Structure formats: structure tokens, C-alpha cells
């Protein structure tokens, strides 16, 4: 994904100024400051194929050993439906979202309530309920 493309999370920013800065800079300390920003950056990572970022932002207690993305799935839109906690001073957060996609010519929506935890100043995806 080009840094000047529109960010998949639909923030209105370019990919490079929005989620791309986390995807390319997480190892050097660029980390989302809230659970919702982490959720948006993880959605964009699925859209951009940033598997390393997805694994790095997944809590170690629930992180899979490997992650293989379905390259036939095209992520089209992210709707944040509800949030609870997840702010810069919280230790836990929840984000309910709907992620719209196309796969094999068919449209679909993945709806999930995701839980996040903050440890050592960094937010991690813990798990989600479909």
C-alpha cells in the first residue's frame, strides 16, 4: 500500500499519516495510544497484509503462532459501532465494529466485539467475540 493512498480505516488521512506509521514504526516505538486507534490500525493491517504488525499487537497470551491472511478477501469499510474504556489512562477497552469485505464476488460483514488490554503503556488485542 502506498503511503499517499487513503487509509483503509477511513479516517480521512493518508495511509502514511495514519495507520501506515504504526505498521512501519511499531518496532521503534510508534504504538497506538487508545484501543480504538489500535482497532483501526489492525483493520488496516488486514487490508494491507501487514501480518507482522497484527502479530506484534496481539496479546502474547492469545496470539497464534502464525497468521495466514486470505488474499482473496478485500476489506472495504470499517464502522466503529461502540467503544467502552480503552482511553489513554485505561487498562482495558472494548471496541465493537463491523468490517465490510468482498470475497469471491460476494459482499459480507464481519461483526465483532474486541477486547483490548494495555500493558507497559501499549495496547494489545486480547480477543474478540463474533
Automatic annotation (TrEMBL):
Transmembrane segments: none annotated. Residues 34-128 form the YchJ-like middle NTF2-like domain. It comes from the Bacteria. Gene3D superfamilies: 3.10.450.50. Belongs to the UPF0225 family. This is UPF0225 protein NCCP1664_18560. It comes from Zafaria cholistanensis. The lineage of its organism: Bacteria, Bacillati, Actinomycetota, Actinomycetes, Micrococcales.
Amino acid at each position: 500500500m502506498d503511503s499517499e493512498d487513503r487509509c483503509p480505516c477511513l479516517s480521512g488521512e493518508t495511509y502514511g499519516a495514519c495507520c501506515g506509521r504504526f505498521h512501519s514504526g511499531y518496532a521503534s516505538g510508534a504504538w497506538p495510544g487508545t484501543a480504538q486507534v489500535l482497532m483501526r490500525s489492525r483493520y488496516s493491517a488486514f487490508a494491507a497484509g501487514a501480518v507482522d504488525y497484527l502479530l506484534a499487537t496481539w496479546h502474547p497470551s492469545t496470539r497464534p503462532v502464525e497468521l495466514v491472511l486470505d488474499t482473496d478477501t478485500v476489506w472495504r469499510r470499517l464502522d466503529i459501532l461502540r467503544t467502552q474504556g480503552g482511553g489513554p489512562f485505561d487498562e482495558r477497552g472494548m471496541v465493537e465494529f463491523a468490517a465490510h469485505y468482498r470475497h469471491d464476488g460476494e459482499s459480507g460483514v464481519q461483526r465483532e466485539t474486541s477486547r483490548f488490554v494495555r500493558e507497559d503503556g501499549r495496547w494489545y488485542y486480547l480477543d474478540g467475540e463474533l
